[in-house]
Design goal:
Elements (H helix, E strand, L loop, with lengths): L1 H79 L5 H82 L4 H13 L5 E5 L2 E2 L8 H9 L4 E2 L6 E4 L1 H8 L1
Parallel strand pairs: 1-4
Antiparallel strand pairs: 1-2, 3-4
């Protein structure tokens, strides 16, 4: 029966269309995952760089402070020879010693800052390497995704053209009915009758209906699932074997 062959071809075409459309629908999720990973690595790098720059600035400030205070000490030492009174002399010595003591503390703090500076720089470089790796992968995969999307669009257009061509050879009411069943019955609108049962829902068919199906003179429907039914000796033989 020619109609059955057309309907089976159409079912295969529509199934393929579903598969390709589902593949295309999943692409935005892939893009979102890639973008999320890229943004995560970018945020980690920016935070690491901010930490590095903050520590570097603290180190520079402290180095400058130590240098300025050391200059003060040297100038104070130079002034010592010109001081006339013991009171002023000892006051100046006290100030020099206090400044030197504070500078010793500053130098200890500077050592700690230098260690933090190295760690922050190392962390920043690690984050940069991770970002570069993900960035390269992100752009590479986006190129692949763009190519796949274009391929899906071309395939869907070809499938739709094939679907229209096949559908045009059917009666419009039969086509609408077929499409409605296809949507409601998980993509199986026409099913074979095998061993006196519908292969779509597996319900037994009456002997009378089965005999009519075997004559193959018209389309019948399954009384249980409403799928279009056809009889195929090939399917029957395959099931029996």
């Amino acid at each position: 029966m020619e109609q059955v062959k057309i309907l089976l071809d159409l079912q295969e075409i529509m199934t393929r269309a579903r598969t390709v459309e589902e593949q295309k629908r999943r692409v935005p999720l892939e893009v979102a995952d890639l973008k999320g990973l890229f943004e995560e690595r970018e945020a980690a790098f920016l935070a690491a760089r901010q930490e590095f720059e903050g520590v570097r600035q603290q180190r520079r400030d402290l180095e400058r402070e130590i240098e300025e205070e050391s200059d003060k000490v040297e100038k104070a030492k130079a002034k010592l020879m010109g001081i006339k009174t013991n009171k002023e002399y000892y006051a100046m010595l006290k100030e020099i010693e206090q400044t030197k003591r504070l500078n010793t503390e500053r130098e200890e703090a500077l050592l700690a800052l230098m260690a933090r500076h190295e760690e922050a720089e190392k962390r920043m470089n690690e984050c940069k390497a991770e970002l570069d790796e993900v960035s390269g992968r992100y752009h590479e995969q986006m190129v692949d995704i763009d190519a796949r999307m274009a391929s899906y669009d071309r395939e869907i257009a070809a499938i739709n053209a094939d679907r229209q061509r096949k559908g045009a050879s059917l009666d419009k009411s039969l086509l609408r009915r077929f499409e409605l069943i296809f949507e409601r019955r998980s993509g199986v609108a026409i099913a074979s009758a095998q061993q006196c049962a519908c292969s779509g829902c597996h319900m037994n068919l009456s002997p009378q209906l089965y005999n009519m199906l075997q004559r193959g003179d018209k389309l019948y429907v399954c009384p249980n699932c409403n799928r279009l039914l056809y009889y195929s000796e090939e399917c029957e033989g395959s099931e029996a074997g």
